[in-house]
Amino acid sequence: MMKVMKKKLSLLVLFAIALCMGCYDDKGNYDYHEFNEITIGDRGFDTAYILTSFVDTLRISPELDFKLAENTHLKFEWVAQSNGVDFTEYPLGNERDLVFPVSLPTETYTLYFKVTDSLNTMEYSNATVMQVQDLLTSGWVVLGENSNGEAQLDMITYSVDTMVLKDMLHDSGLPVLRGPVKVWVVDNYRDNMIHISTEDGTYRLDRDNFKGGDHTHLKYNFYDPESLDHFVLQEVAQIGSYNRAAIIDNKLFHNGFLISSSVFQNPANHYQGTYDLFSIGDKIAYNPKSMAYYYMLYNNDAKRFVYTGGRSYGSPAGYCDTLKDTRSDVEIFSWKTGLDYVTSISSRLLDGYSFTVLTDSKGSYYLYCYALKYQWGWESIEKKKKYSLDKATDIDKAKFFGVSAQRTYLIYATGSKLYAYDYVAEKVQLLRDFGGQEITLLHYDILIDVGSGDDFFYVGTYDPSLPKETGGTLTMYKVMNDPNNIIVEEVPGFSWSGLCKIKSIDFKRY
Q1: Which of 415, 407, 426, 423 is nearest to 487 (CA)?
Q2: In this predicted structure, what is the pLDDT of residue 189?
Q3: Cα dist. 497→361, 425, 452, 455, 475 in Å?
Q4: What span, in angstroms and rounded, lies between the C-alpha atoms of 89 and 29?
Q5: Is 502 exposed, middle or buried (0-12, 13-18, 19+ CB in 10 A)?
Q6: What pLDDT, in 10s, does the model give residues 464-477?
Q7: How far apart are CA 126 and CA 40, in angstroms?
Q8: CB neighbours (10 Å) of residue 453?
Q9: What is the distance between the terminal CA atoms of the chain, rounded to a whole angstrom?
């Protein structure tokens, strides 16, 4: 028995040795190749690219060095990977030399070039960074009307060379809208949209491609989409990235909640404990230089100032409250004025003063100055001064208002004339008379050009001899900081014609 077992074991060992030898011999039959190592040079990858979609073509001819010799077993791949949250990959080509007409979304990308040797499956790569922008990346969005009274959206783009893009609503997916009211480009953490407000309602457009539709109607930003009749956005003020107040269909709405910053709730133009809505002025005053979450409005029924917002316990975040006069400030003016409302103005003057223009039954006009402040975790509203506007020429005819960020000037426009009134020195000056052209817009810049010496505003004019589609002009002006003279100069190179009849503008940052 033992002999039989030994015999079987010997056979098994011999079989195993024979099998190994067979494998060794078979392995020796393979055709071995030395790795043809590839090096991708830095040419084309030693710089970052700034490109514009639908304008630029990216061309890179990479240098390849081979350890042995160039072969035909290579596969090439060009890929742009988004550096955003989802890291989306976009294939650009499969040729050695890249020729790619750029058509990517606005984003920062990592551009990869990959070379694969199909003989040994080795992969080699190089990479660089590219920033893609498009014609819609940044510039002034201009809302106006055409000859049929329909809303027209143009854009003065700064993305490449400054140019005017026309009729952005044509392929937007929105219905034909009449009676333009306001354009608002919102910046917040959830919904960065362009709001187009008209008498036919307000719609939101995607900021990357200016597309929208019935589903982007503003009513869907309300808990109750049937709560209002028209959903016309007339005025809006935003502090930070989400806290805002808006006037929609002549009603006030305030939203200070981060998690629902794009959703409107119930009207806020009432006092605590009652839901009787009072009439309000059509403008909202706020401080663009501080994080005071207060918004000042005017109660037309009681003819007094009210406010909403705030962050502390007991603040009127969903309603309005009155302001109380004190012994120390009642001589400045009373919050209960008894006067009729004209307009409110937010500014960057000093600490961010706000102003309200009021008028009495005798036709006299007054400028109320106050400051919405935030210090040590608390908001406050401080009276500054009341000024007479009796010496301000044509103030009773004024349609548009602004306040200088450097000087004590009220800038206003009526008909074809643009004025500046120094409300401290009580001195008025006619800045421009546009003759046969009509002033249709005065937009004081308090959010974009906000350097220490910046004091810019924009004037929109319309030439009635031209069609409304192309008869509008937008011009930028600067208030010069001269203590002795009222000097306002046109900024060279910042006047654009061929626009629609301008109603409202806002700046698109990205």
Answers
A1: 407
A2: 52
A3: 41, 36, 29, 22, 9
A4: 42
A5: buried
A6: 999 999 999 999 99
A7: 7
A8: 10
A9: 90
DSSP string, 423-483: TTTTEEEEEEE-TTSEEEEEEE-SSSS-STT--EEEEEEE-TTS-TTT-EEEEEEEE---S
d(CA 228, CA 256): 21
Question: Is the distance from CB of 446 to CB of 458 less than 8 angstroms?
Answer: no
Residue 272 confidence (pLDDT) above 60: yes
In 3D, which of 301, 421, 310 has the Cα closest to residue 355?
A: 421
Encoding tokens for residue 252?
């006030």
What distance in Å separates the CA atoms of residue 299 and residue 126, rounded to the nearest whole number?
Answer: 65
Rounded distance between C-alpha atoms, residue 134 and residue 103, angstroms: 9
Q: What is the pTM of this model?
A: 0.80
Task: Grade residue 510 by pLDDT with cuts at 50, 70 and 90.
Answer: confident
- Distance (Å, whole) CA 255 – CA 273: 19
DSSP structural state of residue 76: E
Q: Are 301 and 287 in contact (CB under 8 A)?
A: no
Residue 126, CA distances (Å) to 58, 59, 96, 101 in order: 16, 15, 13, 21
Ramachandran quadrant class, 14 (left: phi over 0; alpha: psi -120 to 50; beta: rest): alpha
d(CA 28, CA 46) in angstroms, rounded, equals 45
Q: What's the token pair of residue 273?
A: 């404990």
Quick one: which H or E segment has residue 2? Answer: helix 2-27
Please report where in the chains the tokens 């009635």 appear, as a residue.
464
Say if residues 387 and 424 touch (Cβ distance below 8 Å): yes
Q: Which two tokens stand for residue 483?
A: 């203590």
* Number of alpha carbons in the 13 Å side-chain half-sphere of residue 424: 11
Residue with tokens 């908001």: 379
CA angle centred on 141, ends 140 and 144, rounded to 5°:
125
C-alpha to C-alpha distance for 38 and 337, rounded to whole angstroms: 82
pLDDT digits (tens, 9 = 90+) for 194-212: 999 999 999 999 888 899 9
CA dihedral sign of residues 314, 315, 317, 323: positive
Q: Which two structure tokens, joined as six digits, stand for 250?
A: 């002549």
Tokens 């140019």 belong to which residue? 163
